[in-house]
Write a structure and sequence with these properties.
Residues 22-36 have a biased composition (Polar residues). This protein is mainly alpha-helical and 86 residues long. 58% of the residues lie in helices and 0% in strands. The chain has a domain at 56-81. The protein starts with 10 loop residues before the first helix and ends in a 5-residue tail after the last helix.
């Protein structure tokens, strides 16, 4: 999965950046949004969350019987097909 770009997520910041870039001779730096740093996270909690994420889907599938899995799959397919296309 590709990583997200570091572009500003606020449209006003992006518009200001584009105008600044178009009207100046030098390229300004992109304004950065507030993002949590890796050091802000508890390493033990990160490891535990990753551990649960790695086995979650497989463990859930093993607990379900074939009828339950089929019902979940039908519901998911119906949700995908019923999405409005804009």
């Amino acid at each position: 999965m590709p990583k997200r770009s570091s572009n500003p997520r606020d449209l006003n910041q992006l518009a200001a950046y584009i105008v600044e870039q178009a009207t100046s001779d030098t390229a300004p730096e992109l304004p950065q949004t507030e993002q949590p740093q890796e050091s802000d996270k508890n390493p033990a909690a990160v490891a535990l969350g990753r551990l649960g994420g790695l086995k979650g889907g497989k463990a859930r599938a093993e607990k379900l019987n074939p009828e339950e899995r089929s019902a979940i799959a039908k519901k998911a397919a119906e949700a995908r097909w019923n999405k409005s296309k804009e």
